[in-house]
Each structure stands twice: as structure tokens, then as C-alpha cells.
RNA sequence: GUGACCGUAGUUCAAUGGUAGAGCCCUGGAUUGUGGUUCCAGUCGUUGCGGGUUCGAGCCCCGUCGGUCACCCCA
């Protein structure tokens, strides 16, 4: 037997109802917030991610599916959505058209991690990006759209973690201070953090090692080191959130694993996912577009995990639709007539099905039950002789005689 | 990548080192043209794979593959 590679999933119809419920909730919400859909490739030149996300990040340094095409160029299956969207935005010169663009997307992402609950190698995200404004309103809007989707899919136990990691200027100043502080305590740090001290000092704040957590409490805090502009920006974002009643929790240690973020960062977390607690996250990225060769254009966005959201609402019953009509026959001419009517009803848009094998009524009714049929249309010898089909409602159990050519009208 | 636990029928799970079983599902019947409840009958296996120990291995040992969970990090 040939098996699928680890960490990727087949999604069968019994899970599709919930899946589509989540996806449709997201798409409907995007529409109400006036976002336009964008479809970008799931494969890019490796540089898109290496330069966009940052070579020192975990994603780029150890989690990408990278391979060469026949010309020896390095391609990578996208590990996240933003970098590709930014590349497309710049490549198509979109920034010349509208001052502000609001996009949404959804689709598979790939990361070569060890699979576990809520973590797959191929997983699906939906997300949105806003280009062209530094206005804190847009930071708020992105968080608000995620909050609304979360509400619509029925997740009730979650927390929004919010932080600002500053702009180029204040962040680098803060990093210097942070590095100084931790260098003086270097010997007390865990091995990972000793390494992080050089590669990405911000990550020191994220360590769960007991000793490092203890050191964190007297480490400099980013919110005390924001420049005036970043401080004002952050205050506005919070003001807008308060205004619309979106509850959040400030977390000065929220550091995200992608290098491109500036100012606002946020994560939606829940305790229902085991080791993974985030089901959505994002932030502002004011330098990413120019890094891709576009004219300096600020941006803000988010991504949410389809599988994780599906897991959180796993217990929720999502009603699926059955087939409208199921035909029951006794073979021979009754089958011929059934097939004629079946085809006619399908042409008219009624979802319809039949078991073409000649079996007893009992097994055909069982099948109709399994297919969650709304009505059963019985075409037997009596019906064939009289020209009247027996139409039985599976909900009420009542049945009546309907002329063959009047079934469609009867259904309306 | 590191670690822990687990691999038995389509599925959920049993089986002191001694004949591989049950529930559900599926198929048929009781009801010769009426499903969902009930009763009866039937189908279902290289015990993940390879080696070893043993008179004898689903069970013990080694390896391997797969799964789950956790760490790291993130959706």
C-alpha cells in the first residue's frame, strides 16, 4: 500500500461541512469588511521567503520544502502567505493604482516540521493584507476582522495578545539595551538563548526555560522604549479596539517568528489546542514592500489556521445537506422510467440519486436514509401502470401520488 | 531535529507466552412494495514490516516503518 507522506491530510466528506462553514464564515466576513480576493502561487523562488521572512527565522532556516527546478533554480513551497502576496503586489505594480488595497486569500502552506496536534506539514490558512497606509485604524481593522470571524465560527474561549515591537529606530535602540542586559547574564541563560543572543535577541523574551523566564522580569520592556510615533500609534490601535469593544491583553513578551513585523503584533490564542495555542496571528510590516523592490509602502495583515480552527470547534454539530430526491425502483421498465425521471430532475437542479442495482425496497430505503434524502420517489409496477409516482417525504413520513411530469412542480 | 507512548477486522477496542475475539459498520432475512427501533444470520485478519529468543510469540528482545503527544517554533 502506498501511504501519504507524514503530516499531510486527506479531508473526507464527513469533515467538509465544518470546513466549508469555517471558510464561508471567513469569506463572508471579508466581504462585509470590503476585502478583495487574491490568488497567488503556492510555489515561489526561494528568495521570496528567505529575504522576506528572514534567514535567521526558524521557518527559513529549518522548515521549508525547497527543491531545484530543471534549470537549477531554487523553488520553495510557500511556508506562509504574506511574502508571496507582497511579491505579487510589487510585481504587478498594484501600488500605482489605489492608495489603499485590501486583499484576502486562502490556501495550503507547507512547513517541514514534526507533525503533532494542530500542526501539519501541509496546512491551510486564510488571511488578509492591507497595503498603503500607516494609519492605526488599519491595525485595528485587521484585528477586528479576525475577531469577527472568530465570533462567527463560534469560538468563545480565546484571548487576543497584543504588543508593539516598534519601528526600525526604536527597536534597534531597544535591542541594544536588551542585548546589553542579557550579555551581563549570559552564563545564566539556557543553551538556546545563548545562541539567540547573537541571532535574534528578541526571542530571548519568548523562552520558556525557567531560568530565562526569571531573568526576563527585570529585562528592559519594549513598551518603555518606543519612540513617540510608535507610542502614539499603539495608543490609537488600542483606542479603536476599546471603541468597538474588542477585548485584548497586552503582552510585552509577544515576539513573532517572522522578521518583517514592525509596530503592532498580535496573536489569537486558546487553551483548546494542546501545545499549540495560536489559531491566528499577524501584525504590521512597514518595510516589507520596499524590501521587495516596491516603492516604500506600509502594510498590515494576519493569517489564521483552518485546521486549528476546525479543531477548536470540533464538538460543534454542523448540519450538512442531504440529497433532495432518491429514486426507488423494482428493476426492468421501472428502472428505465426512474432513470429518465432522475435525469430530468437533475437537469432542473434537484440533487437526485438512485441505486441502479435491483434490490429490495428495504435496502433502497436504507440507502435513501443514509443519503439524508428529503424525498423518496417510488417508481414500481403500480406507478408505471398508473403514470403516478409515489412521492414520500422522509421528514414527515407522508406520501402521495404525483404524475411523472409533475414531480418538479410538486417539489416547488 | 530531540524525547515519550502506541501499532490486532472497514472502525473502536479485547486476548497469563498456549486454538486471534467482541461492539459498531456493512450484507441478507424476520416484514414476497416502505428506512430510522428490535431480533436472527452472514462477510471481515499475512496481529505494520523484518529478524531474534522459545517446544510455542499478538504478547519478550533488536531493528525498521507508521501514528500520537510533547519540546523547539508557529497557523
Plain-language structure description:
The structure is a single chain. By secondary structure, the chain is an alpha+beta fold. The chain has two domains: 13-167 and 227-312, Bira Bifunctional Protein, Domain 2 (BirA Bifunctional Protein, domain 2), CATH 3.30.930.10; 325-411, Anticodon-binding domain (Rossmann fold). The protein is built from 15 helices and 16 strands. It has helices at 13-32, 46-53, 58-62, 82-91, 136-153, 168-184, 191-199, 210-216, 228-243, 288-291, 306-312, 333-347, 361-370, 381-386, 407-411, and strands at 36-37, 43-45, 66-68, 74-77, 101-110, 122-131, 159-164, 249-250, 262-269, 278-284, 299-305, 325-329, 352-354, 375-379, 388-393, 399-403. The strands form three sheets. It has an eight-stranded mixed beta sheet with strand order 1-5-6-11-10-9-7-8. Strands 13-12-14-15-16 form a five-stranded mixed beta sheet, sandwiched between helices. It has a three-stranded antiparallel beta sheet with strand order 2-4-3, with helices on one face. Helix 1 (13-32) packs across helix 11. The chain is elongated and about 95 Å long. The model has no long low-confidence stretch (mean pLDDT 90). The structure holds one RNA strand of 75 nucleotides.
What are the main properties of this structure?
412 residues; alpha+beta; BirA Bifunctional Protein, domain 2; Rossmann fold; eight-stranded mixed sheet; five-stranded mixed sheet; 15 helices; 16 strands; RNA-binding
